[in-house]
Amino acid sequence: MPDPCRPRDVTRLTAGKLEQASLELQASLALARPDSPARGPLLAHLSAVDTELAGRQRTARAASPVIYLCSCGFGTDDPDWFDGHQFQHPGHDQRPMARYLPARKPVPLGSPCYDARLSI
Q: By residue range, what is the domain housing residue 114?
């Protein structure tokens, strides 16, 4: 019999398996009666799955930061926040970041600019 006090280890599951487990746990929780003793372990497992999914999303977001810019000037690195902003302001459009980043041209070898960058 599993120990109800030990933490649930879900770190080895793939993202797809975590999503599936979350859906199955939510369905089981919906079918359990409010006073059922089965709700405790279901809630513990669901909490572990949700925490792992949230941690993976934060890690993925930190590994490849993307800035979302709006036509009004609003900017964020959180896609959910940006979606909420666009939902509240339907006339706003997302601006592409390439528009704000300077185009970098390669510096040819042997040019004075290339030699100056090496001496810095």
A: 65-120
Asked if residue 117 and residue 103 are part of one domain, the reply reads yes
Tokens of 55: 């941690």
Separation of alpha carbons 43 and 67, rounded Å: 35
Within its chain, how far is the Cα of 68 from the centroid? 14
Same domain? For 88 and 47 the reply is: no
* pLDDT tens track, the chain, 120 positions: 455 555 567 788 888 888 898 899 999 999 999 999 999 999 988 988 888 888 887 776 666 567 888 888 888 878 888 888 888 988 888 887 766 665 656 655 555 554 444 444
Within this chain, do residues 119 and 72 fall inside the same structural domain, yes or no?
yes
